[in-house]
Design brief:
This protein is α+β, with helices and mostly antiparallel strands. Helix content is 21%, strand content 33%. Strands 3, 4, 7, 10 and 11 form a five-stranded antiparallel sheet that branches. Strands 2-1-5-6 form a four-stranded antiparallel sheet, with no helix packed on it. The chain has a two-stranded antiparallel sheet with strand order 8-9. The protein is flat and about 145 Å long.
């Protein structure tokens, strides 16, 4: 069954279980509201009378629409005005149209039963069988380790030349610094007397 209702100056075609977004209505989430302005009702291809017919809905949430920017401008007058607006909406879920109400679906319980049987089957094994399985797994692991071998942390190089190569010699000791009392004459300025040149004899 469907109906056409009017709320907030707009018309909506609804059916059981539909969710619609309408202009803001008073109430909080979970509250019931009644839409009494029913314009049309029908079931399949036949129409029904709307006398005394109401549509019951449940508020899902109070929400806001996307922001709309309102910008005003008057050229050559240095006039700019910018505002934002978000229209307030109410989300409704249709639960009943007249006498027809939505039937709640029961949660299936049969699916949960097989999951609980698996742990019981594992717990039903005797302790001796579980100990035997553990011992077999340990023996198989030991055999695999014996065949493959456990790698060492720092294996020797495969290249014989690289293995027999001598280690590089230690770094040479740095030359000793001169004592504080003796000064180096390497970068010293020449003496004043030595700077003068003697004239050549003619």
């Amino acid at each position: 069954m469907f109906a056409v209702v009017r709320t907030g100056g707009k018309q909506y075609r609804v059916a059981l279980g539909d969710k619609i977004v309408v202009e803001k209505l008073d109430g909080s989430a979970g509250d019931r509201v009644t839409l009494g302005d029913v314009l049309l009702a029908g079931d399949g291809g036949s129409l029904k009378s709307t006398d005394g017919l109401t549509v019951a809905a449940e508020i899902v949430a109070q929400a806001k629409a996307d922001k709309v920017t309102v910008f005003k401008k008057r050229r050559r007058h240095n006039y700019r005005r910018k505002k934002g607006h978000r229209q307030q909406h109410t989300i409704l879920k249709i639960v009943a149209i007249g006498d027809q109400k939505e039937q709640k679906k029961a949660a299936p319980k049969a699916a949960a039963a097989p999951k609980s049987e698996a742990p019981k089957a594992a717990a039903g094994k005797p302790a001796a069988a579980r100990a035997k399985e553990t011992a077999d797994a340990t023996a198989d692991q030991q055999e695999a380790n014996a065949i493959v071998g456990t790698p060492t942390e720092n294996p020797a190089p495969n290249n014989e030349n690289a293995a027999g190569a001598e280690k590089p010699a230690a770094k040479k000791a740095a030359p000793a610094k001169p004592k504080a009392g003796t000064q180096s004459t390497k970068n010293a300025a020449p003496a004043k007397g030595g700077a003068k040149k003697t004239p050549k004899a003619k």
